[in-house]
Each structure stands twice: as C-alpha cells, then as structure tokens.
C-alpha cells in the first residue's frame, strides 16, 4: 500500500509520544501512549557484549549515532536484550526509544575515567558537591525531543557504591554523576523500568518540558549518602506517577537553581503533578522542595501518596540568599507511616555555592495546602521555621490526623509562619489557626484552581 507523503510526514510528527491532553486537570491527566517506532536495532548489532565485564560505551555511542539518521523517518528504537551491559556515559538522540528487555541490565562503570567531565549547569554555577566541574551522567540528553527510556522492567544500575565511598571519604575530584540527565529537552517519557544504585540522583530532568515519569522502581540503599530519586529541576509540565522509590536521601526533590546563579538563570519549576507514589527516604525527605529553588517552584499538585520510614515526610527547604519562591502547592490524600517529622518548612536550610550570594535575596513561601492526611508513628507533627524578614504565609492544613509516638508538647514548632487550619490533630500551633474568614478564601481558591470540590473548607 502506498501512502501519500503528507500522511507519512504527519505520522512521523505524531510518532511515539503523545503528551498533550485536551482537558487536563493536571500534568498526568492525559493518555500516555508509546507507539512502536518504525525502525529498531539491537545493541548486539554494534558489537556489544552482555557479560557484565566488557565495556560497551562505544557500542552505545555508535548505535545512537546510527539511529540519528532515523530522526526524520519516525524515529527508531535501540533494543537492549537480556544481559549485563557495562558502559560509561553515552548520549541519547531525538525521536529515540531506548528499550530494556526483561533481564536487561545497563551497568554503570565503576572506573571514573569512563565518565566524562563536564561544565556545571548554569543555574548552579558549580558542581553541587564540589566547586568546579562535574561528572557527566550515565545516560544523557541535550536539547532533544521525543525520547522514551522504557522497557519491560529492565534495569539501569549505577553500581554507585564506589562513588558513595569516594563521597564519604572526600576523595572525589568532581561532583558525582547521575544515572539519567536530560537537559533542555522536551516530550520525554521514562517508564516501566527499575533504577538502582545511582551515584547521586537517579533521574534529573533540567530545563525540560513535558516530562512523564511512570511506573518505575527506584532504589538505593538506606545508607547511601545523598542519593536522590527523581529531581525535576527548572522544568515545567512534569508528571510523576505510579512509582515506588526508596533512597538514602530524598525520594522526589523539586529544585530550580542555586542562589545568584539560579536567580540570574531565572527558570522556575512549575506545573508538576505527582500521584500514586510510594516513597521512603532514610536520611532525607520523601518529598522535598529545594533547597535549591532560586528560580522559583509553583503550581505543584501532589496526591495519593504513601510515605514511610523516612526522616521527614514533606519538606520545604530554603534559606536567605536563595531568592525564588514556593507558591501554589497542594498536597492531598497522604498516608504517612513511621516518619520522624511529618512536615517541615525550614527557612535556614541549605548552603551557598560561594560567598557571592546576596543575603538580601529572600525567598517567598506562600499558599501551601496540606489536606486529607493520616499519619501513624510520627514523632514531630510539623516544624515550620520561617524567616523573620520574609515570614511564610498562607500555610493551610485541613483534615490532618497524626498519631504521635509519645505525646509531647512539641508536636508542632512554629515561628515566622501564618496560616489556617481545620480539623487538625494534634492541635497545631496558634500561628496556623488564623480565622476562617481570612485564610479560607486563599485555601479555597487554591483548590478551585484545580477544579476540585472545596467542601473541606
Ligand atoms: C554528548 O553530548 C555533549 C553535549 O551535551 C557533547 O559535548 C559530547 O561531545 C557528546 N558525546 C558524544 C560521545 O557524542
Ligand atoms: C509496570 O511495569 C511492569 C514492568 O516493569 C509491567 O509489567 C506493568 O504492566 C506496568 N504497569 C503499568 C500500569 O504500566
Ligand atoms: C522489576 O524488577 C525488580 C528487580 O529488578 C523487582 O524488584 C520488581 O518487583 C519488578 N517489578 C515488576 C513490576 O515486575
Ligand atoms: C582524584 O585525583 C587524584 C589526584 O589526581 C587521584 O589520585 C584520585 O584517584 C582521584 N579520585 C578519584 C575518585 O578519581
Ligand atoms: C508499560 O508496560 C505495560 C505492560 O507492558 C504497557 O501496557 C504500557 O504501555 C507501558 N507503558 C509505557 C508508558 O511504556
Ligand atoms: C525545628 O527546625 C529547627 C530549624 O531547622 C531546628 O533547629 C529544630 O531542632 C527543629 N525542632 C524539632 C522539634 O524538630
Ligand atoms: C485577618 O482578619 C483580621 C480582622 O478581620 C485582619 O485584621 C487581618 O489583617 C487579616 N489577616 C489577613 C492575613 O488577611
């Protein structure tokens, strides 16, 4: 059958990822479909050996280079069959599906010479852990569109233990790499995979839009230092759903740049929807906002989440010098179990990239709603420590029931914070009990903007 050229072109344009929904309430509310790519090659065709010992960096690079030529022909799939595929860092290309078959494991090399060294991100000005450059991530994308990293529960394993040891013994020369980093890219899907043992972050979309992360297991051991799961950073239109994440530090951390670098880069993280996730964070927060947030973070909806065995459940971290803001954030339908502090908002958390930060750049924290929350085995209900020169405002708590381990008078700690609460147990601090008529309209309008029933208020 012959098809007209115009139709083929249309097919190519529509191929693979349809990320725009008509009537979306949030960034997850459209149907995600991954159409098969018209071309597929196996990594075996590029001489790769899946014995867990042979280094396959060149095979991955050559395969991707070859598949670049299919970008205008509907894109292509790189198929990774069962086996252990050791590699150093490599780049993806546009209109590509990287598919990891069941039993396929991409292993990150433990030899640092297999990881390139690259410039810091402009919104950070330096490596996060050390001044200067940083290691390139294992799997990278730069200015791409229409990319899927998916499979039948294949695994990407960073074998991070060497990096954790170097970090802990302070013998790193550059900041640690991540497993997947996509920079300035759009229409990205990461789905149906397991991510293990990231050197630092597992998945880092930065300056991206239309990112859909679905049905992943992400894991690093409880003692792995500062390992983080998913980090949407200066990105917009991000959906994270149906994921199970257990990390040494934070499970999901939303960021947007660091002090003067983040302020001048000026790229916010916005329009983020997170739902149906199971999170565990031994030494950090199940869901963290910041501390790097200088480009601002807004319009975030988190719902139907289960947080367990963590130091903190939900945490907003910022500090003087950050600038930026957290605003219009709604978190609802949360179950917490065995968490030291359920909620933290901290105005003195986070370090500075260098001495050139502006101490007068004060962050703004406004319109944060926490509703329909049940917690068991909690030690401290909430610790809201605002900034004297820029108090946190419109913090709304509704229908929050936390059972505290040992009844103590310090269930809630509040300073430089104001807001509204309704049906909250244990009784919150007076700062969060301003009169119904005042703050309820703010909480109410927040909910209304998402088309929700506002009956709770
Ligand atoms: C990978 O992409 C970067 C740009 O982000 C480029 O500098 C580098 O040369 C690429 N590496 C390869 C092997 O293509
Ligand atoms: C999640 O991924 C697994 C394989 O990793 C697959 O069997 C399952 O069907 C997926 N679930 C959804 C809802 O896509
Ligand atoms: C995916 O594989 C991991 C181990 O590699 C396993 O723990 C997990 O249960 C699997 N998930 C599914 C949906 O099969
Ligand atoms: C850091 O550099 C020193 C000096 O070149 C080198 O001996 C050491 O192996 C490097 N550390 C790592 C983790 O690569
Ligand atoms: C995930 O896997 C399931 C089961 O194979 C499949 O139906 C679904 O389309 C996949 N989803 C994505 C987004 O890859
Ligand atoms: C509350 O947070 C402040 C500032 O981060 C900290 O100093 C204090 O120890 C915390 N209090 C509790 C009870 O966790
Ligand atoms: C709350 O209402 C009181 C009295 O109506 C008013 O003085 C106060 O400024 C209001 N506060 C806010 C935050 O709107």
Automatic annotation (TrEMBL):
| A Pfam short name | Glyco_hydro_28
Q: Does the keyword Hydrolase apply?
A: yes
Specify whether Iron is a keyword of the entry: no
Q: Which residues form the Rhamnogalacturonase A/B/Epimerase-like pectate lyase domain?
A: 41-87
Q: Which residues form the signal peptide?
A: 1-21
| InterPro entries reported in the protein's UniProt record | GH28_Enzymes, Glyco_hydro_28, Pectin_lyas_fold, Pectin_lyase_fold/virulence, RHGA/B-epi-like_pectate_lyase
Which key words tag this protein in UniProt? Glycosidase, Hydrolase, Signal
Family the entry assigns = Belongs to the glycosyl hydrolase 28 family.
Write down what this protein is called: Rhamnogalacturonase A/B/Epimerase-like pectate lyase domain-containing protein
């Amino acid at each position: 059958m012959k098809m007209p050229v115009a139709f083929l072109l249309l097919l190519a344009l529509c191929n693979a990822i349809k990320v725009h929904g008509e009537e979306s309430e949030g960034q997850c509310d459209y149907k995600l479909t991954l159409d098969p790519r018209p071309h597929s090659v196996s990594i075996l065709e590029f001489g790769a050996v899946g014995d867990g010992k042979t280094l396959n960096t060149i095979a991955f690079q050559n395969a991707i280079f070859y598949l670049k030529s299919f970008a205008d022909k509907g894109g292509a799939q790189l198929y990774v069959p069962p086996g252990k595929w050791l590699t150093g860092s490599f780049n993806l290309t546009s209109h590509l599906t990287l598919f990891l078959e069941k039993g396929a494991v991409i292993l990150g090399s433990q030899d640092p010479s297999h990881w390139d060294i690259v410039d810091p991100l402009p919104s950070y000005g330096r490596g996060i852990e050390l001044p200067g450059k940083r290691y390139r991530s294992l799997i990278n994308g730069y200015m791409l569109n229409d990319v899927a990293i998916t499979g039948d529960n294949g695994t990407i394993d960073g074998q991070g233990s060497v990096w954790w040891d170097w970090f802990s013994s302070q013998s790193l020369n550059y900041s640690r790499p991540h497993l997947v980093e996509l920079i300035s890219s759009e229409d990205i899907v990461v789905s149906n995979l397991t991510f293990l043992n990231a050197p630092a972050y597992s998945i880092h979309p930065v300056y991206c839009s239309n990112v859909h992360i679905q049905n992943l297991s992400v894991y690093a051991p409880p003692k792995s230092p500062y390992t983080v799961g998913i980090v949407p950073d200066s990105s917009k239109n991000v959906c994270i759903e149906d994921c199970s994440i257990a990390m040494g530090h934070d499970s999901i951390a939303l960021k947007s740049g660091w002090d003067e670098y983040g302020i001048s880069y000026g790229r916010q993280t916005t329009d983020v929807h997170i739902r149906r996730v199971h999170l565990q964070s031994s030494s950090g927060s199940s869901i963290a906002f910041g501390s790097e947030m200088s480009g601002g973070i807004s319009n975030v909806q988190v719902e139907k989440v289960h947080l367990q065995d963590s130091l903190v459940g939900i945490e907003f971290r910022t500090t003087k010098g950050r600038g930026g803001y957290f605003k219009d954030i709604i978190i609802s339908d949360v179950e917490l179990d065995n968490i030291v502090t359920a909620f933290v908002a901290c105005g003195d958390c986070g370090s500075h990239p260098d001495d050139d930060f502006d101490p007068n750049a004060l962050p703004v924290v406004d319109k944060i709603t926490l509703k329909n929350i049940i917690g068991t085995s909690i030690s401290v209900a909430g610790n809201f420590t605002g900034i004297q020169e820029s108090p946190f405002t419109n913090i709304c708590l509704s229908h929050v029931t936390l059972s505290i381990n040992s009844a103590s008078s310090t269930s809630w700690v509040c300073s430089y914070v104001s807001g509204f609460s309704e049906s909250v147990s244990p009784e919150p601090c007076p700062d969060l009990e301003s009169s119904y008529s005042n703050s309820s309209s703010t909480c109410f309008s927040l909910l209304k903007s998402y088309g929700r029933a506002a009956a709770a208020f």
